[in-house]
Amino acid sequence: MQSFDVIILGAGAAGLMCALTAAKRGRRVLVLDHADKPGAKILIAGGGRCNFTNLECAPERFLSENPHFAKSALSRYTQFDFLEMVTRHRIPYHEKKLGQLFCDDTALRILRMLLDECHDGAVDIRLSHRISDVARGDAFRVVTDKGVFEAPALVVATGGPSIPKMGATGFAYDLARRFGLPVVTPRPALVPLTVAEDDLTLMRPLSGVSADATAACGRTAFRENILFTHRGLSGPAILQISSYWRPGEAITLDIAPGTDAAAHLIGRKQARPKAELKTVLAELLPTRLAQALAEQRLPQGAMATLTDKALRAAGDQLNRWQVVPSGTEGFAKAEVTAGGIDTRALSSRTMEAREVPGLFVIGEAVDVTGWLGGYNFQWAWSSGWVAGQAV
Ligand code: FDA
Questions:
Q1: What range(s) does the RsdA/BaiN/AoA(So)-like Rossmann fold-like domain occupy (predicted)?
Q2: 338 membership: H or E segment, kind and range
């Protein structure tokens, strides 16, 4: 049996941040992970350049059953605090768009920074350890295939089940249930949406076509690109709205955002009476999309032959295209997991379980999910840091 002050399960973004923070406070920290390398998701994030935070990070940009929960951690360790560490390590970065910060060269720089800080604090990181049991007596006892470890504080940082082929598991939920912590049903988020056959007939041949659009669900809307896929819809606006979408609901696409499409088409009838509708639509939309919509969903013919009523209906199709997704592409393709360990069971200041002193949960395992664009890493850093201050 080996003893530590803190055992952290999971050597991902949140676990490493918690480890280096606790180690700076003089804690003897052990990090255990079943993977053979740490921080796998950091390395693949942002196409290998890691969108590590967002300048516009704010609690309203996170989903949770308790929308207030994330405020404390996000305000105690902000995007600017993380940026200070990135700058101190001389990691070159840039803002791509919408406040999203990426490494100039490689995500490896972020992982190396975290590992260097852990190394400076003598954090003991042990990989390829299969955890078979976690029990609580006077201290927490973690049984693995390579030894038994003990500590008075245990931090669960094993993430969510998105992208299982990368070693992601629902381990945190099993552990939570075991210690009596409720779990908000996990669901795939930031995930492509699938559509039923009638929409697919239109969308499948458009696979690869992208368009500027607003995607809305209820009162939430995002304007960015949408991308047609062989299974339905993807692209940043769709990934964003997928986190808000629930099965059975419709999403509304505006594929001519900022333009009153009906007024535009009626105006073009005067200006280009002999032009085909699909030609006029191509002034607003990518050509293939204009063609497909005109051929499959809209009246055919020269503009002069189309009534204003028909053009208004066509404009409606562009500004208010209702799609009822059949589902999502699931955890296999989800960038994150929404839902997770219920925040009601945790202190928002420390991430410690209210009823189980010494047990902490951080990162994606918790029912806090950020928008696309660096928000989820910021949650990992913030929740990891506050727990690291408390363990
Ligand atoms: P994370 O998943 O990082 O770490 C969990 C760790 O626990 C892993 O090392 C895993 O091996 C380990 N583990 C799991 N089960 C275990 C078990 N049973 N026993 C032992 N260890 C176990 N976010 C963002 O802000 N910007 C971005 O650019 C991206 N890009 C991105 C791309 C892709 C393809 C994905 C899948 C995700 C993103 N994300 C993102 C999301 C981001 O990666 C995610 O929110 C964080 O990695 C969550 O950090 P955690 O530390 O909570 O979990």
A1: 5-389
A2: strand 336-341
Q: At what angle do helices 261-271 and 308-319 cross, to 10 degrees?
A: 140
Indicate whether residue 33 lines ligand 1 (CB < 6 A). Answer: yes
Task: Quickly count helices (H) and strands (E) in the chain.
Answer: 13, 23
Rounded CA separation 25/351 (Å): 17
Residues 68, 73, 75, 76, CA torsion sign: positive
Residues 178 and 252 in one domain: no
Query: Nearest residue CA, atom 16 of ligand 1?
Result: 158
Same domain, 244 and 158: no
Give how many domains the chain has, as a whole number: 2
Among candidate residues 328, 353, 375, the one where a domain is terminated: 328
Identify whether residues 343 and 310 lie together within a single domain: no
Best residue for ligand 1 mutational test, from 335, 360, 367 (most atoms within 8 Å of Cβ): 335
DSSP assignments along 24-70, one per residue: HTT--EEEE-SSSSS-HHHHHHHHHT-EEEETT--GGGEE-SSTTTT
Residue 62 is encoded by which pair of tokens? 């996170």
Least confident interval from 29-33, 119-123, 299-303, 308-312:
299-303
pLDDT recorded at residue 269: 96
Q: Does pLDDT of 122 surpass 90?
A: yes
pLDDT tens digits along 228-270: 999 999 999 999 999 999 999 999 999 999 999 999 999 999 9
371: DSSP letter: P
Find, among 331, 375, 57, the residue nearest to 240 by Cα. 375
Based on the fold, state whether residues 37 and 177 are members of the same structural domain. Answer: yes
Residue 348 in tokens: 């928002």
- Say what the pTM is: 0.97
Ligand 1 and 109: CB distance under 6 A: no
Q: Which atom of ligand 1 is nearest to the CA of 17?
A: 51
CATH code assigned at 293? 2.40.30.10
Is ligand 1 within 6 A of the CB of residue 14? yes
Ligand 1 pocket member 374 (CB < 6 A) = yes
Asked whether residue 323 falls in the same domain as residue 371, the answer is no
In this structure, what token pair is assigned to residue 79?
Answer: 């995007």
The residue range of the domain holding 203 is 193-328
